[in-house]
Design a protein that fits this description.
With 181 residues, the chain is mainly alpha-helical. It is 77% helix and 0% strand.
C-alpha cells in the first residue's frame, strides 16, 4: 500500500510542477517537495527497488506531460531571420592548434587521469576490505565523476598550458591511493 501511495504522491508532485510552470512558483515548489517526500518514502519502505519504480513512473508522467504540451503548441508562423554566425572558425594555424590542444588535454588526458584516480580508489577500497562488487561499483562511479569535475576545472583555466596541472594532480592522487598496494 505504501508503494501505491508514494507513487501516487510522486505523480501528483510532477503534475503540480507542470502547473507551477505557468508562473505559480509556490505550486511548483510544492510539487518538487511532494516528489522528494514520495521518493524518500519509497526509499524507506521499499529500498532501491522502490526508488527505481517511483523515479521511473515520475519520469514517464513528466514525459507524457511534455509530449502533450508539445503536440498542443502551435508551430511558429514566421521562420527565424538568418543571422551570421556569432563565432567564426579560426583562420590561423595557431588558433586551430590551440583548440586541438584543449581537446586533447580535456578528453583523452582527462579521461586517463580520471581512470587512474578510479583505479586508485578501487585499490584503496580493496585494502580497506570492501567486497569486490562494492569496489567495482566505486570505480564505475568514481571515473565519470572525476572526469566531470576535472573537465570543468580544466575548461575554466586561462589557456592550454594551465590545463596540464589538473589532470596531473588527479592522476597523482590516484597513484597515491594505489601506491601501498
Amino acid at each position: 500500500m505504501l508503494l501505491a501511495a508514494a507513487v501516487a504522491l510522486a505523480i501528483a508532485g510532477i503534475v503540480l510542477v507542470r502547473v507551477g510552470w505557468g508562473g505559480l512558483r509556490h505550486v511548483a515548489v510544492g510539487g518538487w517537495a511532494a516528489v522528494v517526500v514520495a521518493i524518500l518514502a519509497l526509499a524507506v519502505g521499499e529500498g532501491a527497488w522502490g526508488i527505481a519504480v517511483g523515479v521511473t513512473v515520475a519520469m514517464l508522467v513528466a514525459l507524457g506531460l511534455l509530449a502533450r504540451d508539445g503536440v498542443r503548441t502551435a508551430p511558429t508562423r514566421n521562420p527565424p531571420a538568418r543571422t551570421p554566425a556569432s563565432v567564426t572558425l579560426p583562420h590561423r594555424a595557431l588558433g586551430v592548434g590551440r583548440r586541438l590542444a584543449v581537446f586533447l588535454l580535456v578528453v583523452p588526458v582527462g579521461v586517463a587521469a580520471s581512470y587512474v584516480f578510479a583505479m586508485g580508489a578501487e585499490a584503496a577500497a580493496m585494502r580497506l576490505g570492501w567486497h569486490p562488487a562494492d569496489r567495482t561499483a566505486l570505480a564505475f562511479i568514481a571515473a565519470p565523476v572525476a572526469w566531470t569535475l576535472l573537465a570543468s576545472i580544466q575548461l575554466m583555466q586561462a589557456g592550454p598550458l594551465r590545463m596540464i596541472l589538473p589532470p596531473a594532480v588527479c592522476a597523482a592522487a590516484g597513484g597515491l591511493l594505489w601506491w601501498p598496494l
